[in-house]
Amino acid sequence: AIYEQSCEAYRHQGKTSGFFYIDSDGSGPLGPLRVFCNITEDKIWTAVQHNNTGLTTVQGADLEKPYTMSFNYNSSAEQLEAMINRTEYCEQEAAYHCKKSRLLNTPNGMPFAWWVGRANEKHLYWGGSLPGIQQCACGLEESCLDMRYFCNCDADREEWTNDTGLLAFKDHLPVTQIVITDTNRSNSEAAWKIGPLRCYGDRQFWNAASFNTEASYLQFPTFHAEVSADISFFFKTTAVSGVFLENFGIKDFIRIEISSPKEITFSVDVGNGPTEATVQSPTPLNDNQWHYVRAERNLKQTSLQVDGLPRKVLEAPADGHFRLQLNSQLFVGGTASRQKGFLGCIRSLHLNGQKLDLEERAEMTPGVKSGCPGHCSSYGNLCHNGGKCVEKYNGYSCDCTNSAYEGPFCKEEVSALFEAGTSVTYIFQEPYPVTKNASTSSSAIYADAVMSKENIAFSFLTAHAPSLLLYINTYFHEYLAVILSKNGNLQVRYKLSKDGLLIFTIDSGNFANRELHHVKINREGRELVIQVDQVLKLKHNFSEIDFKAIKSLTLGKVRDSLSLDPEVSKANAYGFTGCLSSVQYNHIAPLKAALRHPSVAPVTIKGSLTESSCASIMEADVNTVTTIYSSSDPFGKTDEREPLTNAVRSDSAVIGGVIAVVIFIIFCIIAIMGRFLYQHKQAHRSSQTKEKEYPENLESSFKADIDLQNTVSECKREYFI
Questions:
Q1: Where in the sequence is the domain holding 111, given as residue range(s)?
Q2: What is the pTM of this model?
Q3: Residues 604 and 481 grouped into a single domain
Q4: Residue-level pLDDT at 35
């Protein structure tokens, strides 16, 4: 198999949502199936579309001329069955909208509509109900419009109503056909919808067992692999050696083991003497991380693959025995040959595409436990941008609570458009109640609120300077401000009580250039480091090491501007107009709090704040951005002296200007055509009286034609300006 067996497997490669091929039976006979993997939440959904997922109307159908629609999933029934059986849960939405059209003809009649599922079985229950019960969802919930019936549509009313719910009994899915027979009466009409097949979970990917002693093992029936063997599994261990699995015959055998901390060996003997394929890793494999092993043997070759390392391939001998004849039980995690057993975890073990249920067998075997803890040790690195890996019984998830990002791996930016005057203010909670009668020991009140470090990160995109991007102030009139100066340089302004005002200017270009820039400001104790666009720009050592009693953090315009110094105040007059993304201050994400939890978080929003994607704005063609600017356009250009006065233009003035330009172009064309016709007429007369002047008149005509093109071109340039 060249594709993964489920969307769950793709997620643990760090993939994001999209279309993928999955091969549910691995190296089995079934081909791959194209699905959509929705990797945006804790549950990884797999969706398979069919040929008609829209709302479809039906009229003129009765028992003699039933309406029938069959569904094509661009796959075989066996492929869909293999995918469904592997998952934990599946569903399909079933909706029936009706006007004087009965559905199941409850409570006691023969149904007027039904659907066909797996194995071509006819089913008489509807979405939201259970197999074997001829009802709809409202019947189970006792919420039907007419309590005498078990479906809303069975009340046979003249007005539109519907029965909608989920078909979720896996063994009956997918829906392969729907039949409707009651839309041929007067004023009778219906519309139906069967949604895509959606499933989540992988019952095999996390199927694991923990081997706690070297003498412990699991036993399974004999592995029948006479001419071909395909074995795959994950393992993690801290032991230096051990046998993963072993199966014996009279003389033949097959074995996979970790023979040293950096070596995996696959041994096979079909009667010609042992063949050993060994893969050596440059780093230890007993690092308590998950590693993948795939061993294959057929009539032509024996091969072994470990993780992404080069595959070891041994060609089979041309002569001799070729059938692998085994007759003992299969040992997993141990051995019958008194060799050293395996200490650690094995999961997702497949033999020739078939899953071995390790968890079920471990439940009844001493020395072996079902499942395996510690998934974050292997997959925690997939949680980015401060996301925290959270252990689950089957897998892990990324907690993005303290991250400025979101999504399954904390990699999706959270960004918003700011207009002139927009502000987002995060209020820090005071450590103790502050009273008007506070004594001279007011510094003691904030003793626990001292910040000896700042880890600040954000991205911005704007066309306006000066601008105030970020402002942090304290109860002791200290502050940190990040601004764009009038020429577009980036300034980080620190005011600490002992050091006074410190200004750090990044003058490597104009940052108000409609491009996305990434800023990181890190202070640990006395040392300050500033990075812009992943490039180290500045280092500095403070004499003051504490930022005392932080009061608030503001993005955009600061409302309480009385205490601002002149330069910051000048930038604050314009606020920030543009896009801010993924703003992080230590463990706080103020912009994310404003967009996701505005009613819960201690955050205040003033002005217009619109969620958007800074990256997509940057990718847009800036040449298509109109210069006609309104207050809702964050990137329009205005007079720097009056940031709001010139923000709005009159539509009537624009229309009048366009009409004037069009009229001017028409007059230009008329004048040029008149000149051209006149010269052409003169040239024709001259050619009759003076043949030798023909080339000169031709040149004059050609020049006139060139003048026509140039004049029209000039008119066009003037119009576009």
A1: 7-200
A2: 0.61
A3: yes
A4: 94
